[in-house]
Each structure stands twice: as structure tokens, then as C-alpha cells.
TrEMBL record:
Organism: Aspergillus campestris (strain IBT 28561)
Source organism superkingdom: Eukaryota
Protein name in the entry: Uncharacterized protein
PANTHER family: NUCLEAR GTPASE, GERMINAL CENTER-ASSOCIATED, TANDEM DUPLICATE 3
Pfam families (alphabetical): DUF7605, Dynamin_N
Stretches the record annotates as Disordered: 492-542
Skewed-composition ranges (Polar residues): 532-542
DUF7605 domain boundaries: 779-937
Length: 1041
């Protein structure tokens, strides 16, 4: 098929090949579409329009000015046509630079993540060597400090992945399989520690294989929990005193926790009578609270056993068996005192920075553990929702797994793309039920009629052959006995002279009437008959010999029959075994097919349910248009869903020899654990690439600066003192203008951000307060009618939080529904727009500085011009990295703010909660309901006013913090002025002392080595970033005035 360019005239003259490779590839891909759409008849103007449009899509990976300069400064139409001839084909599919489309063999693509990380790895020892050299120079010690700072950027980022799900969903088994450990987390050890977050990360320590850090709650947190536990006991004091508390009641939980930590309290009465102050005074307890324990071990079994002792309420070390209705121990347990557990192990799936966080499915009575869980939820970049696969077939499972609070927070965080669903226990399956429920074709789980008949025939024939074999065996035993007796008699019989007579020998083979046949002789007694009854013609020895020969012949025949029977039995057994193996294989295949069918169905249902939840939430939260432009079909297709069998994976890996065979799985891929492991690693790629680029950009900027400082400059040798002074004055003026402009740009950014917050969020304060005030009484009525009094009181003891209940968040969600759309506009649209705009203006400011400085110098050598161009590019890249970090900081800060709305509600309701918690005795429920209702009626406005005021203040703090982050760019400006001064003004090597010249030479050699080895300018190609809506055309940029 001819290419576009080969079949028509060369593309109109457009000089653009200086574009970085990824921008060039994207340009070619879009050019192909434009060529096709207009019949290849493009004019120069259309290409310029395309270039501007493409620049908007690329979202500022290079400055506008740089982009235009590169478009207008290089090659000819012939080169472009030649490039197009090898890359643009009508049949090529458009995936864009971001989609990774293959646009031709000769296309220069952006460096892979592996290339970036390998370059980081190669640069570190060189950077350390450079730091050691720079420490010896007193010309500018900030370079050594800069090298130290850059080195810290090489640390791989951690990507936290929340693993959530109810108890019994198989989270611990899943983590064991993912990390390729049999039981790093024992599956039965989390029963009593369901409210403890467990972090599993890579162990970078080379001295030990397994390591754990167990952090205890503080004294204040434990004292507060003890107060709540005592209140729970007092609420059911009568039942506690007589030992009749329900096993799942709050009082039973309180008893378990207190007696686990204080084993001397052996009876319920002891627990009721003791005071909190007395319990807190124990010296052993004071030593633990607020402390930390570190476990280290190379043997996984020993490590798991040690870890279990801290987090399992049934761990070894309790020396007295529990009695009926209570638990007793001679040693104090410590699991109620655990705040968080961090486990470090050497697992390939964690080596790239992934950190799995096993989060509890319920809130805990301990404020410290609850705070840890909430903090992890904010920090996690991905969320894995785990559920047994038998629940995934329910069309409502997505609604259940993503509750209202989760959906609200994910909307405000724009985090729906971070969800992964994992269905566990796929090996637990009933073939018949799956076939019936999924309406599958009948599988060959039973043999056909012919096969059944053949099996029956084989079984009958085998039984018959075995019976005949047994008969032959019995006959052989008898014949063997006779042969032995006859052999003995022949050995004792005397020789008979008549045996030598010819006549006797002649008649010895004649069977006379009445004499026994050989067959009969074989079964007769071997004793010789009396001589008086012997036939005269046959002697006694002759008869024995004849009988002996007959018996041996009979034995030979029987052995032959037995051999034939054995062969027949073996053949029949083999045929029957083959039939059974075929049957087993068919059943395993049927199970495999059912597992695959159920997996596919479950994935489909979860995807559909997820999109339905997404659509419904959009409709609920965006009460007026415009709703977010969301591609629901793409969301359904791209949702990661895995159906895994941890048992099958561990069994195939040979880690569970005691377990029975897991049928239906023959390869690791069928368990989907390897796929999930690859998915886990892929979740770290974006953060790793960003970190590697940030590090290499800073290394490149440092090398460019050092190159200017160390390279002799021919320009300075030709300048007079007056010329040098004039250049320095102009450079100083240009530098001051650049810094002043940056101050205005930074102020403008802050004003625009403040304006966006005021217009979209703060202006809605009255509506949000009114909505909260309106919905509060209804929420209280719902709590009063749906919660049991002991549950409601337990929630109040936890300041509104207990197990799956979070009243503060429920109230916050009711009010914040009016804010979701505006929140997304500010932090998902306005902040990226403002950051992009600031980057464009900053690029233009750098270009103005460069132009003003270069205008003051005439006849600049090409080497100096090129070096300063590299300095400017490296500076722009460094500034872009700082801006991305500032944008990321704003978005991460926004996650904290909307969650703190619920915390503000809890602050205003703390008095109400405590009043409810103190109620006990008759009429407790009515008094609690009255207190809550009175609060909703009289204080609802004050509650939401306080929360909204706090939110607005926190938003202002966020804006100020972002301004502080932007201040770091001023250091970059100082560096670029220094570098231009070194290139255009400083006397350079000519005035350096001998020692300084020696150091500069060594630094220059190392810098050249690093530039040659690392090839940073080739590697640091700009990458595309998400398209944003631009508030201004790229031509209409000012400089911040």
C-alpha cells in the first residue's frame, strides 16, 4: 500500500524536525489523520493550525516560544517527506504518543521506564564522585550541596495500595500468595486484630530476610479506649456480673480486651470494680505504650510465629486454658495495644515500591488505630476491593463493596480509576450449580452409555478373572504339597532290580485296568499301597516316579494358566484405569470450564455494576448540569477485575504439601495470581517514571551549570573591561526583571487559585450549611430507628465512629453533595489550568531573559550559544518539575481537606456523644434518642457553620502552602543567572589559581564522562500530559502584569 507522502507531492514546507521524539511522533500521527480527512490537500496554514492544536494536547511539555522556534528553524520539506514516507501509512492505527502506537520502525520513541531507571542507577556513583570533587572547591560550595540534594531524589517512591474487604474474604491468603510466601500472615491470626492496619513492604535490608515493626498506641489513646470499654461494661453491668453477656456484644468485646492486657482480672467482677487510673499505673504497661518492637528473622516459620504472638488473641504463651464463657491467661496479651504493624520482606512484587496495606473493614474503639486507617486511605494511590467470588455474581455487589462514603470520597478525589476488584476462592465451586445457574451446555461429567456399559463389562470381567485366579492359586498350593511329598518318598524308596529288566521296562509305560491315571495320581496320597495289592508288572518305585511326573506336569499347566490370567487381569485393570483417568480428566476439564465461565461472568457483572454505581453517583452528586464528561463504556472496559485462587497458586508452587489436590487448575496463569502480581507492579510505573525523570532533570541541570563553570570561554578573552562591565549590567538587569516577573507570576497564580476557591467553593457555604441543617434531623431519626441502643451508645463512645458506622462522615456526605461538582472543577480543572498557564508564562520569562542577555553581546561563539541554550532548556525542565510537584501537593492537600469536614463535625458533636455515652440503666435508649434529636433541632446550624468555616480556612492555608512550594523556583533563577554570568562575564580559567584550575579540570573531565555515559539530553524527551481546557490562546500570553 503506498504511503501518503509517496503518492503525492511533498508535504508543504514546514521546518519542525527539531521537535523532541515523542512530540514528533504525536505530530505525525495527527498529521496522518488530517491528511486523510482533507484528501491530502494541505496548505501551510493547516499545518500551523495543527501544530498549535497539538501543542495544546501535549499540555506544555515545551514552552510555546521553544515550540515555534523549533517549527521554523530547521530542515526542509524533503526531509519531512522522507520521514513521512517511512512512518505515515493509510492503514496505520492512531494511538497517539500516549497510546504507544507503533508508527514505524524508524520512529524514535521516548525512553522506557527501564532505560530511565538504569540511567538513574548508573548516575549515582558518578554523582557521588562528583560531590567529592566539588567539596574541595571553595568557589561555589552550593554545587556540592546541590549534588547531595539531588542524590536524595534517587530514592524510589512508595506506592501504597489499600487492600480492603470484610473478615473472611481471604485478604491474608491473598497477600501471602502475592508475595510468594506460604504464611507470612497466618490466615487465622487476624480474628482479634481486624482493626489493625498491616503494611507489607519490600525489605531493603541485606542482613536479614524478614523484619517487622510493631507500633503501640500511646498512653493517652489507651486511656481513652479504657474509658470507652468501661462505659460499655457499665451499660450492661447486670449481664456482665452474672456472666450472661452475648458473645458478640460490646460488653463481651470490652471484657476480652481488658482481660487480655490485664490477666490478673480473672472475673467479670474484677473488671467492673477496677478503675482506669489503677490500670494505667502498671509499670509494665507504661513501658509498652507509645513504644515500638522490632522483629528480625531469616526463617519464615519463626518470623511468622513471633509476629503472631503480637497480633493474635489466641497466640501461644497463655498458660491456662480458657474456662467456659471466659478467657483466662497467666500472661498479658498485647494485641489490643497494637497501633499499626509494618512487615518488610524480600518479594519481587514489592521490589519496585509497591506497599500493600491490609486495612480493617471496620472502625475500632481505639482512636489511634482508626486514625491510622484513615491516614492510609488518604495516602493510598490504588484501592483493591476483595470479596469472595460467590458474592460477585450478585448484581448488587458493587453497591455493597462501595458504600456511600467511599463513593463520595472517590468522587472528590477523582479516584474511580484507582479501583481494582479481586474475587477470591475461585477454586470453591460446584460444577452442577454453575452449569445450571449460568445455563452452560451439559459437560461430560458423566460417562456416555457405551462407556458406562464398557466399564461394567470390565468390572465384571475383572471379578471373574480374579475368581479364576484364586481357584488356580488354591490348586497350585495342593499340587506343590504333593510334589514335595513325592520327592521325599522317591528319595527314601530302595532301588528295585526288576526295574532293570527289559520286560519290566517295556511294560512300565502300559496303563493296566484298574490302575490310577496320572491325573488321579496327582491328587491321591503319595503313600505306596501294600505289596500284596501291587500289580506284579510295576514296582513301587515305578509308581512313585509316574505320580511325580504327573504332578509336575499338572503344576506346569496350572502355572501357565495362572500366567495367562495375570496377563488378562493386568490388561483389564489397565483398560479400566485408562477409562477412570479419562473420566477424571473430563471432570477436571468440566471444572476448569466452569471456573473460567464463572470468572468471566463475575468480571462482567462487577464491571457492569461498577459503571452503574458510577452513573448513579454522577446523577446524585451533580444535581444540575454540566455533569462530568465520562465515557462509561471505557470505564467498564478498563476496570481491572481479577478472579484468583490462592490455594491453587500455592499448591502448584509446592508450598502446601499437606493440602489436598486443587482440581481444575494446571498452570499458574489459571490462578490469575501472576496477572495480579504484574498489575501490582504496573501500578508503580507512573510514580517511578516521574521520580526518575525528576532526578535526571536535576542531574542534567547540574551538569550544564558545571560545564559552563569548567569550560574555557574564548569570549571573555576578547572583551574589554568596559564591554564586560556593560554585559554584566545588562545581565544583572535581565536577572532582576526575571525575578520580578516571577514574583508577579507567582502572586497571580495565588490570586487565581484564591479566586477559583472563592467562586466555586466558598460561595456555596450558605447552601451547604442549609442543606446540612435540613438533613441532620432526618439522619438522627434514621439512626434512632435502625440502631440497637447498645450499638448507638457504642458509636457515641467512639465520638460517632464504631465498626462500620461513622455518623460524622454520614453528616458530612449529606452536606458535601452540593460541593462535589465545584470541588472537581477547582482541583481537577482549574488547578491544572493555572499550573499550565504558569509554566507557559515562566517559559516565556526565561526566553525574555535569554534574549535580553544575548542582545548585549555581539559575535557570540557558537559553542557559547549552544551551551547557554542547553542551560536554558535544563532550567525550563527543572522549573516544570517544580510546578508539577506543586500541583501534586495541592491535589494531595485537597484530599485531607474534605475529609477534615467530618472531623470538624465530630468536634462540635463531642459533647453530645459523651452525654449519650454516659447514659445507663432503664430508659437509656429514650434518653439517647432525645439528646440526639435535641442536638439536631437546636445545634445543626452551628455544627455545619463550624465545619464550613474550618474548610474555608484550611483552603486558604492550602493556597499559602502552594505559594511556599513555588518559592523554591527562585533558587533555580539564581542558578541560571550565575551560569550566564560564568559564560559571558567571568574571566574563567585565565584567572584561576593553579589548584583551582586543577580542580576545574578534574570536574570538567568527570562532567564530560557523565554526559557521554548518561546521554541525558537524548533521554530526557518531554512526555505528553493530560489535555486541559485553556483559558487563553497560546498567542495571548502576557508576562504576569
Amino acid at each position: 500500500m503506498p504511503t501518503v507522502c509517496a503518492a503525492h507531492e511533498p508535504i508543504p514546507y514546514e521546518k519542525w524536525l527539531a521537535l523532541t521524539p515523542i512530540l514528533r511522533d504525536a505530530f505525525l500521527a495527527k498529521a496522518r489523520l488530517l491528511l486523510i480527512s482533507v484528501g491530502y490537500g494541505l496548505q501551510m496554514g493547516r499545518y500551523k493550525e495543527l501544530a498549535v492544536s497539538l501543542y495544546g494536547d501535549i499540555s506544555g511539555v515545551v514552552s510555546v516560544t521553544t515550540f515555534k522556534e523549533r517549527l521554523n528553524s530547521l530542515t526542509t520539506a524533503e526531509n519531512l517527506s522522507k520521514s513521512c514516507e517511512s512512518q505515515l501509512t493509510i492503514g496505520a492505527s492512531y494511538g497517539g504518543a500516549r497510546g504507544g502506537a507503533d508508527t514505524g520502525k524508524n520512529t524514535k520513541t521516548a525512553p522506557t521506564l527501564t532505560t530511565l531507571e538504569e540511567t538513574v542507577h548508573r548516575s549515582l556513583p558518578l554523582l557521588h564522585e562528583l560531590h567529592d570533587l566539588l567539596q574541595n572547591t571553595n568557589t561555589d560550595t552550593t554545587w556540592a550541596d546541590e549534588a547531595t540534594r539531588i542524590t536524595t531524589l534517587a530514592t524510589p517512591p512508595k506506592v501504597y495500595i489499600a487492600v480492603t474487604g470484610n473478615t473472611g474474604t481471604g485478604k491474608s491468603s491473598l497477600i501471602n500468595a502475592l508475595t510468594d510466601e506460604e504464611r507470612i500472615l497466618t490466615t487465622n491470626c487476624m480474628r482479634a486484630a481486624t482493626a489493625v492496619a498491616i503494611e507489607i513492604a519490600y525489605n531493603a535490608d541485606s542482613t536479614v530476610r524478614y523484619r517487622a515493626e510493631i507500633e503501640f498506641v500511646s498512653a493517652a489513646e489507651w486511656e481513652r479506649e479504657l474509658v470507652a470499654l468501661k462505659q460499655a461494661l457499665r451499660a450492661e453491668a447486670d449481664a456482665v456480673a452474672v456472666g450472661q453477656v452475648a458473645s458478640d456484644s460490646e460488653a463481651a468485646v470490652a471484657l476480652d480486651k481488658i482481660r487480655a492486657v490485664y490477666p490478673r482480672l480473672r472475673t467479670a467482677g474484677d473488671v467492673l470494680d477496677v478503675e482506669v487510673g489503677e490500670l494505667m499505673a502498671l509499670p509494665a504497661l507504661r513501658g509498652r505504650l507509645g513504644g515500638r518492637v522490632v522483629l528480625e528473622e531469616d526463617d519464615v516459620k519463626l518470623f511468622s510465629k513471633k509476629l503472631r504472638a503480637y497480633i493474635d488473641s489466641r497466640a501461644e504463651g497463655k498458660k491456662k486454658s480458657p474456662g467456659k464463657g471466659e478467657k483466662e491467661a497467666d500472661e498479658g496479651g498485647i494485641w489490643p495495644l497494637i497501633r499499626v504493624v509494618r512487615v518488610f520482606l524480600k518479594s519481587a512484587v514489592l521490589a519496585t515500591g509497591a506497599v500493600l496495606v491490609d486495612l480493617p473493614g471496620v472502625y475500632d474503639s481505639n482512636a489511634g488505630r482508626t486514625a491510622v486507617s484513615l491516614e492510609y486511605k488518604k495516602r493510598c494511590a490504588a484501592h483493591w476491593v476483595v470479596a469472595p467470588i460467590n458474592r460477585a455474581v450478585d448484581d448488587k455487589v458493587a453497591h455493597e463493596l462501595l458504600d456511600d462514603s467511599s463513593r463520595m470520597q472517590m468522587h472528590m478525589d477523582n479516584a474511580f480509576n484507582d479501583i481494582t476488584f479481586i474475587c477470591t476462592t475461585t477454586d470453591d465451586i460446584s460444577v452442577a450449580e454453575v452449569e445450571e445457574s449460568l445455563r452452560l451446555e451439559e459437560s461430560a461429567t458423566e460417562l456416555s452409555q457405551d462407556q458406562s456399559t464398557r466399564r461394567e463389562e470390565l468390572q465384571a470381567r475383572l471379578a471373574e478373572l480374579c475368581m479364576k485366579r484364586d481357584i488356580i492359586r488354591d490348586e497350585l498350593e495342593t499340587v506343590d504339597d504333593n510334589v514335595e511329598k513325592l520327592e521325599a518318598q522317591l528319595a527314601e524308596a530302595p532301588a528295585d532290580l526288576s526295574e532293570t529288566s527289559p520286560n519290566k521296562r517295556k511294560h512300565s509305560d502300559i496303563t493296566l485296568p484298574g490302575s490310577a491315571t496320572p491325573e488321579r495320581d496327582a491328587f491321591q496320597t503319595a503313600e505306596a499301597p501294600p505289596a500284596s495289592r501291587q500289580t506284579p508288572e510295576l514296582s513301587n518305585r515305578e509308581q512313585l516316579t509316574a505320580r511325580y511326573a504327573s504332578a509336575k506336569g499338572k503344576r506346569k499347566d496350572l502355572n501357565a494358566q495362572r500366567k495367562r490370567l495375570r496377563q488378562d487381569v493386568t490388561r483389564t485393570e489397565e483398560e479400566l484405569h485408562a477409562l477412570n483417568m479419562q473420566d477424571k480428566a473430563r471432570k477436571e476439564q468440566a471444572k476448569r470450564q466452569c471456573v473460567e465461565a464463572r470468572n468471566a461472568y463475575s468480571k462482567q457483572e462487577l464491571k457492569r455494576g461498577f459503571v452503574q454505581v458510577l452513573r448513579e453517583t454522577d446523577q446524585e452528586l451533580y444535581e444540575s448540569p454540566p455533569r462530568p464528561e465520562r465515557d462509561y463504556r471505557a470505564a467498564e472496559e478498563q476496570l481491572p477485575v481479577f478472579c484468583v485462587s490462592t490455594r491453587a497458586y500455592q499448591w502448584i508452587q509446592g508450598r502446601m504439601p499437606k493440602e489436598s489436590v486443587v482440581e481444575g487448575f494446571t498452570t499458574l496463569e489459571q490462578t490469575e495470581i501472576p496477572q495480579l502480581q504484574r498489575h501490582c507492579i504496573s501500578l508503580t510505573e507512573r510514580a517511578r517514571e516521574a521520580a526518575a525523570r525528576r532526578f535526571l532533570v536535576e542531574v542534567n541541570r547540574l551538569l550544564q551549570s558545571l560545564s559552563v563553570w569548567t569550560t574555557p570561554n574564548p569570549l571573555t578573552a576578547e572583551l574589554s573591561e568596559e564591554q564586560r562591565r556593560a554585559i554584566e549590567v545588562e545581565l544583572t538587569r535581565a536577572g532582576e526583571n526575571m525575578k520580578d516577573t516571577w514574583q508577579r507570576l507567582r502572586a497571580r497564580f495565588g490570586e487565581k487559585l484564591e479566586e477559583a476557591i472563592e467562586h466555586h467553593i466558598a460561595s456555596k457555604a450558605s447552601a451547604i450549611i442549609a442543606r446540612g441543617q435540613e438533613k441532620f434531623p432526618g439522619a438522627v431519626r434514621r439512626w434512632n430507628t435502625t440502631m440497637r441502643y447498645n450499638t448507638l451508645q457504642a458509636v457515641c463512645r467512639g465520638d460517632g465512629v464504631h465498626r462500620q458506622h461513622n455518623l460524622n462522615q454520614e453528616l458530612a456526605n449529606l452536606a458535601l453533595r452540593r460541593l462535589v461538582a465545584a470541588w472537581r472543577v477547582v482541583f481537577d480543572e482549574k488547578v491544572p489550568q493555572l499550573t499550565l498557564d504558569l509554566q507557559r508564562r515562566l517559559d516565556r520569562t526565561l526566553n525574555r531573559f535569554h534574549a535580553a542577555t544575548m542582545a548585549s553581546v555581539s559575535d557570540i561563539p557558537a559553542s557559547v550559544n549552544q551551551r547557554l541554550g542547553s542551560i536554558k532548556g535544563a532550567t525550563a525542565d527543572s522549573c516544570a518539575q517544580h510546578l508539577r510537584m506543586a500541583e501534586e501537593g495541592i491535589r494531595n492537600g485537597s484530599k485531607d481537606l474534605h475529609r477534615q469536614f467530618a472531623e470538624s463535625i465530630a468536634e462540635k458533636l463531642r459533647g453530645t456523644y459523651r452525654a449519650c455515652a454516659e447514659q445507663h440503666g432503664r430508659g437509656t435508649l429514650r434518653r439517647i434518642q432525645r439528646i440526639m434529636s435535641d442536638t439536631a433541632r437546636t445545634r445543626s446550624q452551628a455544627v455545619f457553620q463550624h465545619s464550613m468555616r474550618r474548610l474555608v480556612l484550611d483552603l486558604a492555608t492550602l493556597q499559602r502552602n502552594s505559594d511556599s512550594q513555588l518559592q523554591s523556583i527562585e533558587t533555580t533563577f539564581t542558578g541560571v543567572v550565575r551560569d550566564y554570568h560564568a559564560a559571558l562575564v567571568a574571566p574563567q580559567i585565565q584567572q584561576a589559581t593553579a589548584s583551582q584550575a586543577q580542580i576545574k579540570t578534574a570536574v570538567q573531565t568527570l562532567v564530560e564522562k557523565m554526559e557521554t555515559t548518561l546521554q541525558l539530553e537524548a533521554i530526557l524527551t518531554p512526555t505528553s500530559s493530560p489535555t486541559v481546557k485553556k483559558e487563553e490562546d497560546v498567542e495571548a500570553l502576557d508576562d504576569g502584569h
